[in-house]
Amino acid sequence: MDNIPTKTVMRQCLQWLNVHYGDLFRDYRCKLKTGQAILLFLEATLASRKTLEDIAEHLRVTEWFQDWLNLPSISGAALHRKLEDIPLELFQEIFQTLYQAIAFHYVKKPGLDSVGHLAIIDSSEIRLPPIYGKWAYVSETQNAVKMHTMLVAASHDSVCPGKVVLSTAAVSDQEVATKLMAELNYTYVFDRGYIHYASYQQWALTGIRFVARIKANSKCKIVETRSVTGQSSVILDADVDIVEPKIKEVFRLRLVEYTFVDRKKKLVRIRVLTNRWDLSAEEISNIYKYRWKIELFFRSMKGNMNLKKLYNTKPSAVWNQIYLSLIAYAMVELIRLSTETGETCLFLLRKLLSHADKLLINWKDALVVVKTKTSTGRKRKKKRGRPRKHPEVFKAVHWIIE
Fold first, then answer.
1. Fewer CB within 10 A of the terminal residue: the chain, N end or C end?
2. How far apart are CA 14 and CA 343, in angstroms?
């Protein structure tokens, strides 16, 4: 058993963390050091532990975890205090270090079809309780914070947040959009919450490529139209003049309209503005369709990275927990890229949790999925005999287990 604490899957995955890191001022005479706390919270995020007491209990019953951390036990109250005491800058530094390693892999990715790498920008709200969340007050019925995200899509299966801005939910998406735009190599994708013609004009002048959805009643003066194929979902491809509302200056963009049928079987018309004249209208429409990837990312963060359940509702603790979820997601994505499994992050996360206390070599074998199913499925047999004239009558089932 001596080799278990040094070669477990979880330890190997988190070995880049300095477990015994201690802050000179915050960790003075503290039992729980900053490095130990970060690792405890990160393991809890990956394992979706719902409460601080669950984290403390898992440590108490896991011997190899105790040996690794050099920490036999800790209370939920100590974890509660520590989460709000760790400086946010430390979490941001860890996340940026991980993303730089991920970006190294993304450079080799081909992008999405022929449109290259995309940067999808959107935000997601995280609700806070009625009383302890008043510091993020929005309305009488809502207290919430926002995670504004620039999601880099390097291929169909490779997405990771490249930059994140946190705020209370009262901050509009337009206020922080430019803070998320740093690279010129991406095509930025926006939904209707980011309509701002002055920004569109500035981006067009500075060479920032973008595709932004506008409303059905947004006014655009059509200058020139291009023909579209009858088999395509695109119904309009045109150059349009846009009037900047404040200074009344006119500038030109490209308008692409296409239709699709939603889940309710309703025909929906999408209108997008862009400054990419080098792509076809079908490619422009595909770019906006890829915006759905950020919705899947937010769903994964809340469902798989434990962002829905907050351990502490103090402002600093909330910001820290959001970054813990981001670090956990980035770590799994980096492992996926490094192992070259070809599977999704969710698959890798499940394997990681199942083999957390196993030897690393066993985990690598578990990543190789061998398909054993050879059947084409159960064939449906035709009904025989005369059709039933009357519905089948069921009797009440009395089942007693003593």
1. C
2. 20
Residue 32 parent element (H or E): none
How many whole angstroms separate alpha carbon 115 and alpha carbon 389? Answer: 59
Residue 174: φ, ψ to 5°: -65, -30
Residue-wise burial string across 322-334, b where 16 or more C-beta atoms lie within 10 A, e elsewhere: bbbbbbbbbbbbb
Query: What letter represents residue 171's amino acid?
Result: V
Going by the DSSP 8-state scheme, the letter that residue 23 receives in this structure is -
Q: Which amino acid is at 279?
A: L
Contact present, 266 and 282 (Cβ < 8 Å): no
pLDDT at 359 over 90: no
Torsion of Cα atoms, 133 then 137 then 143 then 146, to 10°: -100
CB 210 within 8 Å of CB 200: yes
Residue 305 corresponds to which tokens in the numbers above? 């990275």
Model confidence pLDDT, tens digit, residues 316-329:
999 999 999 999 99
Kindly report the backbone phi and psi dihedral angles of residue 355, in degrees, each rounded to the nearest multiple of 5, phi listed first: -115, 25
Tens digit of each residue's pLDDT (9 = 90 or more) over 169-209: 999 999 999 999 977 789 999 999 999 999 999 999 999 99
Reading the block at residue 208, the tokens are 């920032």
Sign of the C-alpha dihedral computed for residues 104, 109, 112 and 114 taken in this order: positive
CA distances from 2 to 36, 229, 355 (A): 21, 68, 18
> What predicted TM-score, i.e. pTM, was given to this entire model?
0.84
With cut-offs at 50, 70 and 90, classify the pLDDT of residue 394. very low
